[in-house]
Amino acid sequence: MAGGKKSFQGSILLLVILLLICFPAGLIYLVIKWEEDTTSVPMRTCMSCGANIPVNYNVCPHCGKATMPEQVPPQA
Fold first, then answer.
1. Most exposed among 29, 36, 56, 67, judged by the fewest C-beta atoms under 10 Å?
2. Would you list the DSSP string of the chain?
3. Domain residues of the chain, as ranges?
4. Of 27, 69, 62, whose CA–CA distance to 48 is shortest?
């Protein structure tokens, strides 16, 4: 190693095999983690910025504007 230049000493084949194993495993992990949560909080739309916010928020966390509480129609 004259001149201080470093070179790759490992096997390119080993690197390719590891990538072929790790890439699909990573994709499977992401698909499993990103499944829709069925126990999600009911959401509504902020009238100022259009962001989805939980129904129980009184102030939009995105734009800071006060939101109107949900109007529940009276039951007859």
1. 36
2. -GGG-----S-HHHHHHHHHHHHHHHHHHHHHHTSPPTTPPPEEE-TTT--EEETT-SB-TTT--B-PPPPPPPP-
3. 42-69
4. 62
pLDDT (tens place) for every residue of the chain, 76 residues total: 556 677 766 788 888 888 899 999 989 988 888 766 656 778 899 988 999 998 888 999 999 998 876 555 566 5
Neighbours of 53 (CB within 10 A): 19
Contact assessment for residue 70 and residue 44, using Cβ atoms and an 8 Å cutoff: yes
Q: What is the pLDDT of residue 32?
A: 86
Record the pTM. 0.39
**What are the φ/ψ torsions at residue 72 (nearest 5 degrees)?**
-95, 120
